[in-house]
From TrEMBL:
Keywords, comma-separated and alphabetical: ATP-binding, Kinase, Membrane, Nucleotide-binding, Phosphoprotein, Transferase, Transmembrane, Transmembrane helix, Two-component regulatory system
Record field: catalytic activity: ATP + protein L-histidine = ADP + protein N-phospho-L-histidine
Enzyme class: transferase
GO cellular component, as recorded: membrane
Organism: Actinacidiphila oryziradicis
One term of GO molecular function: ATP binding
Pfam families: HisKA_3
Positions of the Signal transduction histidine kinase subgroup 3 dimerisation and phosphoacceptor domain: 189-262
Membrane spanning stretches: 45-65, 77-103, 115-134, 141-160
Assigned EC number: 2.7.13.3
Designated name of the protein: histidine kinase
PANTHER family, sorted: NITRATE/NITRITE SENSOR PROTEIN NARX-RELATED, NITRATE_NITRITE SENSOR PROTEIN NARQ
Length: 396
């Protein structure tokens, strides 16, 4: 179903239709004056008709072309009022009085009240003085009512236009208020979710981290960890569990910040990710991570920042699973209208052992693609020249 609202193209067509109608009105008046008696000519009263008709045509055309220019419109309507009133007096058997009536109508519908009244009075005075000068019948003064009717119609049109503008402005303000209300509601919900994550998950992970640290301290203090391989292995598991717990706390805080729209700049987050991989001396599968940034870093929408960061994390994780020991390079490129993150790593030999290759559910890339699409971006993967590449682009 088509929308009942007028589009910009419809408005342009409407304006051109109005201009065509006004031009057709001018041509009709010219034909009427040319066919009435007395005819336009080069001497005496016919010369006056010719000059007045020319002035009326110039004023009418100026009115058509001066849309949006108040001074030009005022001048054009004044010329139309003066020449139209005079034409109405000297060519009583034509439609020339319509020039003065249209001038009054247009003035009443577009100009200030004092200017529109002045233009209507000018037309009336020109009609009255012209009628007295040529000795026309007193009934011609009835044309004054035509001019007055045009002015009143202009005032009515002005009131309608003002009410329509006010209604349109009110509608726009209402839409803005609804948008702001929806945005505020979304922010409130995000804040609530962030608070729940912080209060439940972060506190639980914090307590777990403290318990693991206590267990690590007890195992370290026990002499058995140096002589009993099982105790030494348990100590390493506790250390690894503590590290994973601390990383989980960091990710939880980052998710809370994203929900609260208070994220750090992405290059800083990637640098912290690279540093955490470098410091992870217990993980022999950890890849060497290098980050390169091009362009001027700027703050992005929280969803975009999180999608790009999760892409970097997934790239590092995939490298550890399927290309253990291979370096990972992250290239972050800021342009005027989008941000692109490209992660690359060399592919390993077929004989390279992959102890973590079967871990995970296999939905990492699917989740990243969904994140990118939710942020308005795209994600692509490819293997070229023995190099695996993962690229996500998000508009800004």
């Amino acid at each position: 179903m088509s929308s009942p609202l007028m589009t910009s193209r419809d408005r342009a067509g409407y304006r051109w239709a109005i201009r065509a109608m006004r031009l057709a009105g001018l041509l009709a008046i010219l034909a009427s004056v040319s066919g009435a008696r007395p005819h336009p000519g080069g001497r005496g009263l016919p010369l006056v008709i010719t000059l007045a008709l020319a002035a009326a045509s110039v004023g009418w055309i100026g009115w058509l072309l001066a849309e949006g220019h108040a001074r030009l419109i005022t001048s054009a309507l004044a010329v139309m009022a003066l020449s139209g009133g005079l034409l109405g007096a000297v060519t009583p058997h034509s439609a020339a009085i319509a020039v003065a009536a249209v001038a009054a109508l247009a003035a009443g519908g577009t100009l200030r009240v004092d200017l529109s009244i002045a233009i209507a009075v000018t037309a009336a005075l020109a009609l009255a003085i012209g009628t007295l000068a040529v000795g026309g019948p007193a009934v011609m003064l009835g044309y004054l009512g035509v001019i007055g009717a045009g002015l009143c119609a202009g005032f009515i049109r002005l009131g309608y236009t003002q009410r329509a503008d006010q209604a349109e402005q009110l509608l726009a303000e209402t839409q803005r208020a609804r948008t702001a209300e929806a945005h505020a509601a979304a922010l409130a919900e995000r804040t609530r979710i962030a608070r729940e994550i912080h209060d439940i998950l972060a506190h639980s992970l914090g307590a777990l981290s403290m318990q693991l640290e206590a267990a690590q301290a007890l195992l370290t203090a026990s002499p058995a960890h140096e002589t009993d391989p099982a105790v030494a292995k348990a100590l390493r598991c506790v250390e690894r569990s503590g590290q994973l717990t601390r990383e989980g706390l960091t990710e939880t805080r980052r998710a809370v910040l994203a929900l609260r729209e208070d994220t750090a700049l992405l290059p800083q987050m990637l640098a912290a990710l690279a540093a955490s991989r470098t410091d992870n001396e217990h993980d022999q599968q950890a890849a060497i991570l290098t980050v390169h940034t091009r362009g001027t870093a700027r703050r992005l929408e929280p969803d975009a920042t999180l999608a790009l960061y999760r892409t970097a994390q997934e790239a590092v994780t995939n490298a550890a699973k399927h290309a253990p020991g291979q370096p990972v390079t992250l290239e972050l490129d800021y342009t005027a209208d989008h941000v692109t993150l490209t992660a690359t790593n060399p592919l390993p030999n077929k004989t390279t052992p992959r102890p973590l290759g079967a871990s995970g559910a296999g939905y990492g890339l699917t989740g990243l693609r969904e994140r990118a699409e939710l942020a308005g971006g795209t994600l692509t993967t490819q293997a070229v020249d023995n190099t695996w590449s993962l690229c996500v682009t998000i508009p800004t």
